[in-house]
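A.,

Following up on our hallway conversation. Structure tokens first:
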């Protein structure tokens, strides 16, 4: 039940966070003009796809262009996140947050996500992960806020 890689800039899933009343399309890529500035949540190319092993990593604006990740800092362990594709619905449970790291901390979107700046944050073993990244503090792009979760269910549509 994994999703194949879509074409660049193409919306291919719906991202939902029930507690935040958020529902937004997911598109391939994290380019500002081609994806993020259209109000989409962007999938980091080269990271896993929904439901697959590894890390399904997403980026979203916090304070502009629909601000889909405006309130992700309010997520707490146990909150659910759903990713709906044509073929399946994947549910992830939030379990960790890194409140601030470098904008260049590529470890947070690695196959086994772990901060390369603050190595106490992240995971140490392979799994089925979800990573959400956005800018912090609000109205700046100086640092990144990272929220992680693990896959808890996958069901066909």
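Then the amino acids I'd put at each of the 157 positions:
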């Amino acid at each position: 039940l994994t999703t194949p890689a879509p074409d660049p800039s193409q919306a291919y899933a719906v991202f939902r966070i029930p507690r935040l009343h958020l529902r937004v399309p997911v598109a391939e890529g994290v380019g500002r003009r081609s994806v993020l500035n259209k109000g989409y949540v962007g999938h980091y190319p080269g990271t896993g796809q929904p439901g697959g092993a590894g890390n399904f990593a997403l980026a979203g604006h916090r304070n502009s262009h629909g601000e889909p990740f405006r309130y992700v800092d309010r997520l707490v362990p146990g909150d659910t996140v759903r990713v709906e594709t044509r073929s399946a619905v994947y549910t992830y449970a939030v379990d960790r947050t890194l409140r601030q790291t470098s904008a260049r901390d590529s470890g947070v979107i690695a196959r086994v996500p772990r901060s390369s700046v603050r190595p106490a944050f992240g995971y140490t073993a392979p799994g089925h992960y979800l990573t959400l990244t956005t800018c912090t503090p609000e109205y700046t792009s100086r640092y990144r806020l990272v929220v992680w979760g693990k896959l808890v269910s996958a069901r066909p549509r």
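The chain has one domain: 11-117+126-156. Curious whether your intuition agrees with the design.

B.
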